[in-house]
Structures are given as C-alpha cells and as structure tokens.
Amino acid sequence: MHRHDSLVTLQAHILEQQSRFPQASGTLSWVLSALSISAKIIANHVRRARLDDVLGSVGNENIQGEQQQKLDVIANEVLLRTLGKREGVAVVASEENEEPVMLRQVGDGKYCVLFDPLDGSSNLDVCGGVGTIFSILRYDNPAHSENGWLQAGAKQVAAGYVLYGSSTVLVMSIGMGVDMFVLDPAIGAFVRVAEQLQIPQHNKSYSLNEGNRLTFPIGYNRYLDWAQANGYSSRYVGAMVADIHRILLKGGVFMYPPTKKAPHGKLRLMYEANPMAMLIEQAGGKAMASPDQRILDVNPTAIHQRVPVIMGSAAEVDHVLIHLTTQG
Ligand code: AHG
Ligand code: MN
Ligand code: MN
C-alpha cells in the first residue's frame, strides 16, 4: 500500500461493498459495524487488562469444561451488548454461552452471529496475542426456525477475526475475497491496509501442538517425520487467531488433529473452524477436517461441536492429507 493511496476505513469499505448489491438493505453492514465497535472496545480491555487487574480466571468453567478467564466474560458481554441492539440480528451464539441467545423472532431478524469472544485467552496473562472470531449466517428461512443456526459453513455470508497483537488487526470476508484492516488508535477507526489477500501456496512451516504427538492418529506422525526430514519449521502460538493470521500472510499449514483427550480435535466447528475455513478458502487456500471432508461442508448437529482442522496453503495441506491416506 502506498502512502498516497486514499484512506479507506472499514466503514467506507463496507458501504463500498454494499453498493455493489443495489438490492442490499444494509442490514449486514449494520451487523458488521457492531462487530467493529465490539472489537475496539475489546481491544481497549485487552490493552488495559493488567492495569485494570482483570487477568486470570473467574473460577468458573464454561460449557466446554474450560476455565473462563475474566476477559472471556468481559469480551462476551461486550459482543452481546453491542449486537443485542442491532435489529438485523436474530440469534447470537457464543463459546461462552451454553445455548444460543434468541434476540428476535424469525422474520424480524435476518442473521445469526456466532463468535468466540476471546480466542487463546490463556495467552493473556503473558501478554501474548489473543483474538475474536466471528461467523455470520442467514436466519430468514422459516424452515430453519428450530436450531436455524445449524448450517454448514459453506452457507456463511461473512466471517472474520480480530487479532489483538502488537497492533489490532481485523481480517474479514463477505464472500468476495479477504480484506485486512488495522485499528489506528489515534483516530479510533479500522483502516484498510490490504485487499484481496492471497495465501502463499507454499511455505515449509507447520503449526500444531506437538506435545500431543503420541496420541495423534498415525498419519499425522508420518507427516511430521516427513516434514522434519525435509527442512520444515515449527511455529505455534497456541492461539488460533494468531497462528492463522501468520499462515494467511506467510503460508504454511495449521492443524488441530484428534487426540486421546479430544477425539474430534479441540476446535469448535461453528465459531472457530468454519469462519477460519471461509477466510482461508477465500484467500485461495484449503481447509479440511480429513482427507475427504472439507470443513465448510460439515453438517453441524450441535452448536459447540468440535472438528479436526487442517488448513492453510493448498500445497501444504495436501502434504498432510497424503500422509493421512497413504502408508509409508
Ligand atoms: P479458547 O481460548 O477460545 O478456548 O481457544 C483456545 C484454542 C485455540 O485458540 C488454540 O489454537 C488451541 O486452543 C490451543 O490448544 P492447545 O493448548 O491444546 O494446543
Ligand atoms: Mn478459541
Ligand atoms: Mn475463547
């Protein structure tokens, strides 16, 4: 991006994309702007966490049986409060709530917004990168009135994440490529820094929790032996948003395989795997749950269901898949 290019805020970008659909009512734009405000508020909480003494756990476990950090709860409340006021939203579903929250009757609300309010939250105490992940589905089909949010990821109308790292970055797609914005704290706006991101097709880099290696299905170990014999590097933050952001920009493959402790993998389909899969595919990469199962085609049966994840540069994902299917 050149200094002389015009400055485009997220708000202007959304309006620009909306104008390409003359029939669009602007509802989705309104939902996205609620997510942008939430991101700014959460970024502020994250930056001030130590000063405000809100680090550490609240002593509760969430529905996933994981320790809730104080900031998990704060970020969740911010999103619920911000989205709750927006008329286009019928349902919100969060990692931190057992059941999706119905805001409006079907018909009045058009969209379901699913999110992981704070991803990688155990990194907070050590000043590591954390994020927010979101997925937006349509909710205007009366046939879906029961559990209308249980749709395959291929039906997402928008998806994105916010990384609260050394800067606050928002990466988003509404199905027309992937664009990236950075929060300029001086003006309080997300500014577009890249359009139509394309993931590099190769990078000798893999990202997974290798500590679980002894309980991975054997094919993953075949892959790791091959990768290590072929000069691959290992990079793992342990916060999906940070790991996927690196892979989107630099290439490589991210995995969360089935383990003994988590037989379907640890990551949640509806608000971790699906939105990231949409971004990765929109950027020209590949996102699979197994050699013959695309993540975006998984038909969900429960809001908090988990799925194995192999995603990133197409060629690097293929290297994993081949070792999962063939002996050797
Ligand atoms: P969350 O903080 O929302 O529960 O998510 C943590 C997730 C994800 O961000 C990361 O990729 C993964 O957990 C790391 O798991 P391990 O510690 O098992 O490697
Ligand atoms: Mn998460
Ligand atoms: Mn989380």
Question: How would you describe this protein?
Answer:
The protein is of the alpha+beta class and 328 residues long. The chain has helices spanning 10-18, 27-47, 70-84, 218-229, 240-250, 269-282, 314-325; strands spanning 57-61, 67-69, 89-94, 101-102, 111-119, 130-138, 158-164, 168-173, 179-184, 189-194, 205-207, 233-234, 253-256, 286-290, 293-294, 309-312. The protein has two domains: 10-194, 2-Layer Sandwich (Fructose-1,6-Bisphosphatase, Chain A, domain 1); 205-325, D-Maltodextrin-Binding Protein, domain 2 (3-Layer(aba) Sandwich). It is 29% helix and 24% strand. The strands form three sheets. The protein has an eight-stranded mixed sheet with strand order 4-3-5-6-7-8-9-10, with helices on both faces.
Topology:
Blueprint: H1 10-18, H2 27-47, E1 57-61, E2 67-69, H3 70-84, E3 89-94, E4 101-102, E5 111-119, E6 130-138, E7 158-164, E8 168-173, E9 179-184, E10 189-194, E11 205-207, H4 218-229, E12 233-234, H5 240-250, E13 253-256, H6 269-282, E14 286-290, E15 293-294, E16 309-312, H7 314-325
Parallel strand pairs: 3-5, 11-12, 11-13
Antiparallel strand pairs: 1-2, 3-4, 5-6, 6-7, 7-8, 8-9, 9-10, 13-16, 14-15, 14-16
Bound molecules: 2,5-anhydro-1,6-di-O-phosphono-D-glucitol and manganese (II) ion (2 copies).
